[in-house]
Write the structure tokens for this entry.
Amino acid sequence: MIPLQVTISGGHDRSGRPERVRRLELAAGDTLAVVGPTGSGKSLLLSDIEQAAEGDTPSGRQVAIAGWSGRNGLGAVATLSQRTNFLMDTDVRTFVAVHAACLAKDGTVTAEAVVALANTLCGEPIRPADPLQGLSGGQTRALMIADIALISDAPVILLDELENAGIDKHKALATLSARGKIIITATHDPLLVLMSRRRLVMRGGGMSVLHEIDTAEAAWRDRLSGLDALLQQVRDALRDGDRLGPGTVSVPACSCCPET
Ligand SMILES: Nc1ncnc2c1ncn2[C@@H]1O[C@H](COP(=O)(O)OP(=O)(O)OP(=O)(O)O)[C@@H](O)[C@H]1O
Ligand SMILES: [Mg+2]
């Protein structure tokens, strides 16, 4: 069996110029952040990967997915886009059971396990008996992430602006990483960017530069992670109706933050 590999061959940017990054290869376990200003082409790149483009999209890119048994990469990619809704008229438990059965799972992954994982990502807990269509936007996406992590076989995961999901975005990315899958995240969130090993900078619709995280950036990632934990605690305290003051939010001493 050939190892999993996604190969993106450059096409052209929005003005028809050849993309600077001519070839990008991703192997199992790789994480890639796709960054760039609004309208720079991040979502189109994800869509090119999702449909294994053959020069037939506005960018003219070619995407090959090797090491996967489905034809033309069919079923290789799971996508979490910004506009994601369940259409099935059933409850959470039945959805998980039906999806697991479709993928010929042996029943070892229970709805309870999927719901428990989803509940680590969202505020108000989901219950297995809840109707799918009654879930909030954040709960829906938390359930989809747990489903992708525990049930889906897809070896390539595309995440489009996870930060807008209304869930614990950093925990969500950490949950999906380290499962040997290829994870590609289009994002404006600096911590999500630095959580990926490489980042692809988009400009004018084209793949412009590819960077790899180095020691200095890893130190920035760790620092931002501490700040993010503080922000998360303050957010939780405020939305639980607490007041901020001595003893309300307990965080380790930090040179750039006020005493709490
Ligand atoms: N290489 C390209 N050639 C032609 N059109 C392109 C190219 N790249 C992007 N576009 C088009 O430009 C528009 C904006 O691109 P896209 O939605 O991918 O941007 P984005 O970076 O995801 O923006 P946002 O941060 O707002 O989500 C889309 O209509 C897209 O189809
Ligand atoms: Mg986009």
Observations:
- The longest helix spans residues 215-239.
- The mean pLDDT is 88.
